[in-house]
Amino acid sequence: MRSKRLIVLVACCSALVLIFAVGAGCGKKGPSITSIAPDTGPAGTEVKITGENFGTSQGDGVVHVGTGVADVVAWSELKITVKVPSGLPAAAQGISVLTDVGESNQVDFTVTGAQLQQPERKEGEVEHISAVQAMIAFMQSKGVSTEGMTFSVVQISAKDRNWKIDEATEAGAPTIYFLLHNENGDWVVKDDGTALSKAELQAKGAPSDLFGTPTPATQAQAFQDYLKKQGINPAGLSVTIARVSKTDPTWQEGVARKAGQQDAMVIFHKVGGNWTVVDMGTGFTNAQLKQLGVPADLIHTPTEAQAIATFIQSGNAEPGVTETGWALSVYKVSRIDPDWEVVKGIQTGGAGVNYFVLHWENGQWVVKDDGGQITAGSIPGMPSDITAP
Prior knowledge:
- By secondary structure, this protein is mainly beta.
- The protein has five helices and 21 strands.
- It folds into four domains: about 90 residues, Immunoglobulin-like (Sandwich), CATH 2.60.40; about 100 residues, no CATH class; about 80 residues, Nuclear Transport Factor 2, Chain: A, CATH 3.10.450; about 70 residues, no CATH class.
- The strands form five sheets. It has a five-stranded mixed β-sheet with strand order 2-9-8-4-5, with no helix packed on it. Strands 1-3-7-6 form a four-stranded antiparallel β-sheet, with no helix packed on it.
């Protein structure tokens, strides 16, 4: 793909998040619950669980009701019948099915009659419900959906078993790690991220035998860590890699986007086998890119701004569009062909809002059209996803 750079734009970038499409891998689908009946009752109640991908026989499968393990009466691919175990508090308890493929979603069953909790399960299994509840509540407080996530133990400290690291996994998304501490019988999330560095763990007081958890290896993990440090909410945003340096593939440009907001450029650099985010913004000047160390083949002139100025000077722009007073920002980069993009311009005291369609041709930007609105297919060869506003 031909390389090129995004334009200098307005001062602040939108709060965008990266959600890379990470391959979920091949294999069996995990279990999924669609309904249970009944949804309330005391210990010993028989509950019919309906869903899919349970497996034709129980094998090593387990049904959890809250912190308890249910006795299985019958097991088939689409339906399981169990008895509610004793020892559970009188409250809503999540029912889930755990097989060798993974753990299903949870469906609430209201237990009548309070009992003692059972001990948490062993390392490597889906975790004690109190830890799961702590992680779910922590993510939901950040506005992150937990639907479809599976929670597992990564490592329990041998020095102090009140400390551990758990993980939340979801098909097509990066793994999220949680540092948990048991405080007066309740698990509390002390830190989270797609990686937990030694410095982070030390700062939170974790035992040293928990150091060395996975470090960022992918662009997605690196970007989530970057957003975490910036305090940016990841909900509703996505990013794709638009350009890779031909002279040094350890440098890449990503395009981060959110519906209704302008696109932003993300500069990635791979150092020591791990991707890092060098910077993110709605645009960078050539001088800024050079200062960041970006390879020359990702830095080009003329810029979009220069191409737009030339276009306006030629007299081909819409009536009322003059050269001065423009604040420019990249509005959209085509997913189909990143050599096409739309730049949004706001002219103070002039034409107001105007959109410019640009195409990368023979090593330079060329303005193909402009106007207050850009419709799909209005220019020959233009990708169908280039529209504005």
